[in-house]
Amino acid sequence: MHPPKPYKELLEILEERLRVLPDKPGETPQGNLHALWHTAAGNPLPMEEALERPLPRIDDLAVARLRSLIRRRLEGEPLAYLTGRQSFMGLDLLAGPGALIPRRETELLAEVGLSAIRECVETRGRALVLDVFTGSGNLVLAYAHHEPDADLFGVDISEEAIRLACRNALHTGHEGRVLFRVGDLLEPFDDPSFLGQVDVLTGCPPYIPEKKVGLMEPEIAGYEPKQAFAAGPFGLDLLHRLIREAPRFLRPGGVLAFEVGAGQGERIARRIDRSPEYEEIRTHPDEEGRIRVVSARRSAD
Predict the structure, then answer these.
(1) The domain 7-83: what is its CATH number?
(2) How far apart are CA 138 and CA 156, in angstroms?
(3) What does the domain layout of the chain look like in residue ranges?
(4) Looking at domain 104-298, does it have CATH number 3.40.50.150?
(5) Which of 70, 210, 228, 298 pairs as cysteine with 100 (C-beta 3.0–4.6 A)?
(6) 259 pLDDT more than 50
(7) Which of 9-23, 183-197, 200-214, 227-241 has the lowest mean pLDDT?
(8) How many CB atoms are closer than 10 A to CB 8?
(9) Contact between residue 239 and residue 231 where contact means Cβ atoms under 8 Å apart
(10) Is there a contact between 142 and 88 (Cβ–Cβ < 8 Å)?
């Protein structure tokens, strides 16, 4: 079946003018057009799903909406914010400016976290899991989707992010599986139910140095919440806090896993290795060989 009009015209515009960011390589001109087309037609979908669905015929009013969406996209507004959808680990998630857009690169952390959760379930029957800096809830909801035998909690300092995470729990059908709390890092869990009891603790902390925020792509710095990626003069403040505070919550043998910025992995792994509270420190590279996830176990001592 031939693509409906004005498909060819709009695709040519996107191919000529759209700038695809390095951290969003899958957002091709065709993928953008399909996602925005379905959004204009009143059925927003994540880009991956939009590419698989036939394009509906749209009337003149919907075409006008589509052209407006394309104009905003070319001005730099993120695709996920325009469609209100983002795919992550097989989940169709809601996206909005209250939280960082889930990245494909963070699926590496999800896989490391899931592996640790499943190992715990196999040996202990159930896993207690905390996800800090939870944002839209993408990580902890992916755990809920792929592992039924876990008690799951997410926390973020942003009330707006937690509202989006709660909406995502409802949207994905996991509202009864995951509980979200608002607070600073692990502070909301500072009680006997969690201290020394957590099996797996994961998170995607902010790790961009403050001085580099102004140099980031306008599509990121101009739209996504600054507190979700800015972290002190060297980008390490919250990574160090997480490393310091996690041992109080992890049981002996419990796993800490978190995402780091490109170029930070080896330094952070050495920092953890100096602490007697951790053992089995591991680094996990992405497809290009860059360390993007660091994990460690709480020492038995």
Answers:
(1) 1.10.8
(2) 12
(3) 7-83, 104-298
(4) yes
(5) 228
(6) yes
(7) 227-241
(8) 11
(9) yes
(10) yes
